[in-house]
């Protein structure tokens, strides 16, 4: 038995399977990120991956392979809050591959639609509004919808987590980031998909996350140092914190991490800004 495999960093997927980094990268060997290269800028002592400059945010990089290759025509997601960026990223990519995004979300009055929801609609996402739309309910409705026509529909789990997504994060990160020039990595985290991918990409670098969503599980946190934002998930940062940012950032998401990066981050750390 080759025990070295079990000493390497591994990723546990939603089905309980463990993957080595080499096994993950094998999934994306025929794929390259079709989007513009990430722009990495140094602000004071912090390197920032400025994916707010990328139309529709960083997620479009990492779901591209999955959406391109799945035979299903409908990508179904039931885990997005009103302030979630997936409702922008998913239709941006499904449009490119002549597929469709279907979102199950808590019902709102039209006058209360979030800007992200309006953007998702403009991109052609189909919204299925759910009364009493707690996360468990919207996820259940999405699952039942997929079960009605499994040949045409597939459901993305919470965090858009899939082995190909983790593999895409690793591949993109290793292509554009020189680990010898950075001291550690920071990321905001709701379900922590990006952070787990980055931790696998650079196993010798410390990983830090600022949690902004639900209480994260041990699997979601992984080996990262854990910090918790004091803001509720759907609440934006205060104006003073927003004005302190030297780049644009999502006010209910990435922007919540910057205070922690500046206070606790080491010189030459790297922060991945997902969108704005």
Tags for this model:
Rossmann fold, globular, alpha/beta, disordered N terminus, 12 helices, 2 domains, 276 residues, six-stranded mixed beta sheet, four-stranded parallel beta sheet
Structure report:
With about 280 residues, this protein is of the alpha/beta class. It has 12 helices and 12 strands. It has helices spanning about 5, 20-25, 60, 65-70, 85-95, 115-120, 135-150, 165-175, 195-200, 220, 240-245, 260-265; strands spanning about 10, 20, 40-45, 45-50, 75, 100-105, 125-130, 155, 185-190, 205-210, 225-230, 270-275. Strands 3-4-12-9-10-11 form a 6-stranded mixed β-sheet, sandwiched between helices. The longest helix is centred in the middle third of the chain and has 14 residues, at about 135-150. Mean pLDDT is about 95; it is low at about 1-5.
């Amino acid at each position: 038995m080759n025990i070295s495999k079990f000493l390497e960093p591994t990723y546990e997927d939603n089905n309980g399977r463990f993957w080595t980094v080499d096994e993950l990268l094998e999934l994306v060997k025929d794929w390259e990120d079709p989007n513009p290269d990430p722009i990495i800028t140094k602000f004071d002592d912090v390197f920032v991956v400025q994916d707010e400059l990328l139309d529709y945010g960083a997620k479009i990089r990492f779901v591209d392979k999955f959406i391109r290759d799945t035979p299903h025509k409908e990508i179904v997601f039931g885990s997005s809050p009103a302030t979630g960026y997936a409702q922008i990223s998913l239709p941006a990519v499904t449009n490119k591959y002549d597929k469709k995004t279907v979102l199950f979300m808590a019902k709102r009055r039209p006058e209360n639609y979030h800007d992200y929801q309006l953007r998702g609609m403009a991109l052609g996402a189909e919204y299925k509004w759910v009364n009493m739309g707690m996360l468990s309910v919207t996820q259940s409705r999405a699952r039942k919808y997929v079960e009605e026509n499994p040949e045409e529909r597939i459901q993305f789990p919470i965090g858009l987590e899939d082995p190909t997504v983790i593999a895409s994060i690793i591949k993109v990160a290793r292509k554009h980031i020189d680990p010898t020039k950075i001291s550690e990595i920071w990321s905001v985290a709701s379900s922590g998909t990006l952070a787990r991918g980055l931790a696998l990409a650079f196993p010798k670098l410390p990983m830090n996350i600022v949690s902004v969503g639900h209480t994260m599980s041990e699997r979601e946190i992984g080996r990262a140092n854990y910090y918790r934002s004091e803001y509720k998930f759907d609440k934006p940062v205060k104006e003073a914190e927003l004005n302190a940012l030297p780049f644009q950032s999502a006010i209910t998401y990435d922007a919540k991490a910057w205070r922690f990066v500046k206070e606790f981050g080491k010189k030459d750390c790297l922060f991945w800004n997902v969108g704005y």
